[in-house]
Amino acid sequence: MEEVVFSGYKGVLCAEAGGPEPGVGCAGRGIVVAVELLKRIGVFDEYKPDMVVYDVLGDIVCGGFGMNLRKGMADQAYIVTSADYLAIYAANNICKGIARYADRDGTPLGGFIYNVRGMLDEPELVDRFAGQTGSRVIGSIPSNKEITESEIYGQTTIERQPESEIAHRFRYLADRILENGDRINPAPLTGKQLTSLASKIREKTQTYVRES
C-alpha cells in the first residue's frame, strides 16, 4: 500500500495511475486497473476516506473509460471544459458516454466546471452548452498566474497562497460540489447544435483577434 499511496497537503491521500506507454495499451483500461488495485490492497478499508476524487483525462471515451461509467464508479461526474470548440466537442462526447449508462445505475452528471484556457474567455458560451445538455455550470476557474506558479513548486494554490483570491475560488467550488444535489442523465448536443455553437465560438474568436 505504501508503494502506491502517498500523503499530501493536509493529509490528502494521493495515488498517481499514470498511463500506458504511448502507442501501447488503453488509458481507459488503465483507470480500471488502478481502481481495482486500490480496492484489492485495501486502501479504502484501511484509510476510510471521506471523499474520493478521480481526476481523469477528459478526451478518453473508449470502452475502458465507459466501463467506469457503467460500473457507477463515482456518485457523480463533473466535466471540466473551456470555451474552446474542441474542448466543448470533447465534453459533448463525454456526455454521450455518461448518457449511455446513467439510466442503468451508471455514473450521472453533476455539472460542468468552466476552466478558462487560451485567449477566449466567454462563460456564456459554456453556460449555453451546459444548458442545452440539461445541466449547468457550477463553478469557474479563471486564467491566473498564481495557479501556474503553484504548479511549478508542486503545490496547490491553497497550500502555497491560502489567502489569495484564487484559493478562495477553489474553496467556493469545493463547497458547490459538496452541496450539489443535481445529478442528471445529460442530453448530448446533436451535430446541428454543435455546428451552431461552433459558429458562435468562431465569431467570438474573430472578435478577440481583431481587438488584439
Features:
two-stranded antiparallel sheet, three-stranded parallel β-sheet, 9 helices, 212 residues, 2 domains, globular, single chain, mainly alpha, 49% helix, 5 strands, Rossmann fold
What does this protein structure show overall?
The protein has 212 residues and is mainly alpha-helical. The chain folds into two domains: 1-52, no CATH class; 57-211, 3-Layer(aba) Sandwich (Rossmann fold), CATH 3.40.50.300. 49% of the residues lie in helices and 10% in strands. It has helices at 27-40, 43-47, 63-70, 85-101, 123-133, 145-152, 157-160, 165-179, 191-211, and strands spanning 6-7, 13-14, 77-81, 109-115, 137-141. The strands form two sheets. Strands 3-4-5 form a three-stranded parallel β-sheet, sandwiched between helices. Helix 4 (85-101) links the parallel strand 3 (77-81) and strand 4 (109-115). The longest helix has 21 residues, at 191-211. It starts with 5 loop residues before the first strand and ends with a helix. The relative contact order is 0.12.
Number of helices: 9
Number of E strands: 5
Describe the strand arrangement of the main beta sheet, using strand numbers: 3-4-5
- Straight-line distance between termini: 52 Å
**Main β-sheet: number of strands, strand sense, barrel status?**
3 strands, parallel
Which structural class should the secondary elements be placed in?
Answer: mainly alpha
By CATH, the superfamily of the largest domain comes out as P-loop containing nucleotide triphosphate hydrolases
**Broad CATH class of the largest domain:** Alpha Beta
